[in-house]
Amino acid sequence: MPDLRLIKDGEETANPRMIRLARNSRGMDQSELAKKTGLSLALIVKAEKGQVEVAAEWTAAIASALGYPAALLMREYESVTVACPRTAALFREAVEDD
Asked: For residue 51, what is the DSSP state?
């Protein structure tokens, strides 16, 4: 498994809040996401807390497991509510739990 901390210069990384909101919007817990992505539970927890940066390769795996495009996980929540109203509707409930 590649080291999540090795981020290339200029590479976009996932937004920790968006990972958590996307996971919550699918009704999935961190353990289930870890199993679906092949990442450890500890890494999922750290990624959602912003304690590690998640490179594009693993952002794609997380997004795929959640059924969202990877680009969504790299955005700020506020931009999603404007640009993607349908997805924002899915996130509303997750935001209330956040």
From this structure: S
